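[job 4417] fold queue: 2 targets
>>> target A
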Amino acid sequence: MEARNRRGRKIEVEANDEGRMFNTPQLPKGIYKNLPLILQESAELFQEPIEKDVFLIGALAVLSGCLPNIRGIYFDEPYSPHLYAFITAPAGSGKGKMKWAKYFGQTIHDHMVEGSKEACEDYLLTQFAANLKKIIAVQ
């Protein structure tokens, strides 16, 4: 079977590749029993196993971003717990359930946005005061 990549180049695709996209492997069910209660309860809100998996992968990526000061050493190299998740699948396959994971980081996000706005206002007031002093000194 022939297809084209996003740059328009011809690529060979095996006939069974499309079937694999719809029949992706699922995480073992036992994983959910070992999660913190909040993740267990959140995952249980989804009906389909693949939706639970997509949500969990997204939640782990979001939560890893909430640990900016956590570092560890492994084989003399520093590591942080940051995970990146990218889910690809056909339309209607449950990818949209990942959006619910963002709520684990929403409070931290809101706090950081508010702090950034306050810092910006403080900076602008400081700049205004400095400029006003220059204008007064010139007169």
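>>> target B
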Amino acid sequence: MTAWATRSLRRLRHPAVLPFPGVHTGCDTASRSKPGQAVETGRLVIANGSRSALPDFTTAYPRLVVFNVTARPEVLAQRLATRGRETEDEIRQRLARISLEVTGDYHVVTIDNSDSLEVSAQAFIAALHELYCGTHFA
């Protein structure tokens, strides 16, 4: 995260940015304890997780807001090609089979990450500020 983004997050009321292990591979009881305690005390918790884990997160955190960070397919293809781990055909197949949509009964905020990191970070922080300082978390 850029220094600008970090400073902007600090301006929010009582933020707690808590990365915790196990989110990407599935949550276990131990990894839920610290974020759960933070949520119970009214603090903000930001976690990176998989769309497939959303039902578990919703059960654990009823006021969950999903930030669906996406990019245009051509931008994703370019970024994947830059990594150099997949062939052009593998990238095309990968993009054909994935969905960037969040389906289900969730409060979803979509952030278009097709532009620069700075632009995407500004959009993320503006949406987070609106939610956290607005009525959703009041």
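[job 4417] complete. Note on B: Residues 117-133 form the longest helix (17 residues).
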